[in-house]
Amino acid sequence: MISYAYTPEENIGEQISPQSVIGGDTRSKVLNPSVSPYSKIVFIRTFFPNGYTVRSSGVILGPDLVLTCAHSLYVEAYGGWATKCLVFTDVNGSRPNDSDGVSTIKMTIPSAWRTSGSSGSDWGYVITNTAIGNQKGWMGFGYSPTSYSVNYTISGYPLNEPYKTSNDNYYMYTASGKISLSSDGNMFDYEIDTSEGQSGSPLYTSGQIVYGIHVLGGNHATKISPTLYNYLVSAKNEGIEKWSD
């Protein structure tokens, strides 16, 4: 089953067509993150009880629904739940000020992540206090890819730019490649280039359907399961009802 994407007319513009070449860093810098599909991908900053701040990526899936990874919202070693989560859109080179972030009013992760960190449990979603999806659009999502012969894309905000070492990168990068299903059926495996900071980035098709959440270097994504799909449908529909005219 699939929940489909939505793009406001003003966010349709010139897009990058990423290519994938195994053997080198194939990521391309997104020149204009304010046009679809990149307008739907966000930069996330979370704050933890021990004072640590974590940066990650995410994707808008509804008017106020943002999907990311569980380990950007809950880290036992940092004190457990994040005390604050801010979502930023259209980040393009400059460090976003906290005052420009969209606050979240709800964070959700599976209990399996807190208890065991088991395969396929590294997912989370947040509800924002404003309907950012109505302005930026949202991607669709599904749990059963129709083909493994096509390229899938990962777009997000790496901590470092490719081939650089400074930890002050605030550009979006994107890359594509083939994927396969892990032996336990909970993860996708691939050789698409990623690095720290891109956790929570969507794994999506050319039709803007998200099937996974990038979570591990190596590279792996948590697969959207039927259970997570139903959670997301419910959260999306609540947002549509809340923010509808």
Task: Sum this structure up briefly.
With 245 residues, this protein is mainly beta.
Descriptive terms for the model:
245 residues; mainly beta; Thrombin, subunit H; 10-stranded mixed sheet; 6-stranded antiparallel β-barrel
Topology:
Layout: E1 2-3, E2 28-29, E3 41-47, E4 53-60, E5 65-68, E6 74-75, E7 80-81, E8 84-88, E9 102-108, H1 111-115, E10 124-128, H2 132-136, E11 140-142, E12 152-156, E13 173-177, E14 179-181, E15 187-190, E16 202-204, E17 209-216, E18 220-223, H3 226-243
Parallel strand pairs: 11-17
Antiparallel strand pairs: 1-11, 2-13, 3-4, 3-8, 4-5, 5-10, 6-7, 8-9, 9-10, 12-13, 12-16, 14-15, 15-18, 16-17, 17-18
> What is the global morphology?
globular
Number of helices: 3
Summed over residues and divided by their number, the pLDDT gives a mean of 91
* Structural domain count: 1
Order of helices and strands: EEEEEEEEEHEHEEEEEEEEH
Query: How does the major sheet shape up?
Result: 10 strands, mixed
What is the total tally of β strands?
18
Q: CATH architecture, please?
A: Beta Barrel
CATH superfamily: Trypsin-like serine proteases
Q: How far is the N terminus from the C terminus?
A: 27 Å
Proportion of helical residues: 10-25%
Rg over CA atoms, rounded to whole Å, is: 16 Å
